[in-house]
Design goal:
mainly alpha
Length: 197
C-alpha cells in the first residue's frame, strides 16, 4: 500500500535562511496533498495517510513537518497535530482542509484536489510574475548604477570640468540630490517588485 503513494521528486530550489526554506517547503505542498489523497483512496484513514505522506516528504518540507509528524506518530489527534504546522498561509490552507475533512468525515477527494490545484496555480502565477518582472529588476539595477558610472565617465573624459562641478557647493548639491533621488527610485522599484512577487 505504501507504494501507492507518489513521492515528491520535484527539486526544490535551494534558498538561504529559514524563510527561503519555508517558501521552498510550501512549493512541495501540492505533492504532499497528492500523496495524502492517494493514501486515503488506498484505504488509509486520514491521519495515517497524512503521517505516511509526511514521512515520505523530502527536504525542506520534511523539516517543516517534523513536529506534526512526531505528534501524529504519538497518536495525537489530527487537529492538534496539524496545529504544529508552520504559520504561513499555504500551511494554514492545508491545515484547514485536512481538519475540515477530518471533522466532517466527508469526502477528501474534492477539497484536497482543489487545494493542490490552487497551490500549483498560485506557484505558476508567481513564476510568471518573476519572469515578467525580470526587466523591472534589471532596470532598477541599471538606474542605481548610472550615477557612479556617469561620474566615472565624466572623470575620464573631462576630469577638470567634473572636479569643478564637484568642488562647487551648488554642483555638489545637484550631484548629491540626483544620486539621492536615484537611490530612492531604486528602493521604490525594488520594493514594488518584491511586494508584488
Amino acid at each position: 500500500m505504501l507504494s501507492a503513494l507518489p513521492r515528491a521528486r520535484r527539486a526544490a530550489p535551494r534558498r538561504r535562511g529559514a524563510r527561503g526554506r519555508l517558501r521552498d517547503a510550501e512549493r512541495q505542498l501540492p505533492d504532499l496533498i497528492d500523496a495524502v489523497l492517494a493514501g486515503v483512496l488506498a484505504g488509509d484513514g486520514l491521519a495515517r495517510a497524512v503521517l505516511r505522506a509526511a514521512n515520505l516528504s523530502e527536504e525542506p518540507l520534511c523539516t517543516a513537518l517534523a513536529e506534526a509528524r512526531r505528534r501524529l506518530g504519538l497518536n495525537v489527534p489530527l487537529p492538534a497535530s496539524l496545529a504544529a504546522l508552520p504559520p504561513t498561509p499555504s500551511f494554514a490552507l492545508l491545515r484547514g482542509a485536512l481538519v475540515l475533512v477530518h471533522e466532517t468525515g466527508g469526502e477528501a477527494r474534492w477539497p484536497l484536489r482543489s487545494l493542490a490545484w490552487s497551490l500549483r496555480a498560485r506557484e505558476e502565477l508567481a513564476a510568471d510574475f518573476r519572469s515578467l518582472s525580470a526587466g523591472a529588476r534589471a532596470q532598477a539595477r541599471v538606474i542605481a548604477a548610472m550615477p557612479p558610472a556617469l561620474l566615472g565617465v565624466g572623470l575620464l573624459t573631462d576630469p577638470g570640468g567634473t572636479w569643478a562641478v564637484l568642488a562647487s557647493p551648488a554642483g555638489l548639491a545637484v550631484v548629491a540630490a540626483g544620486g539621492g533621488l536615484d537611490l530612492v527610485g531604486f528602493a521604490v522599484m525594488r520594493h514594488l517588485v518584491q511586494r508584488a512577487g
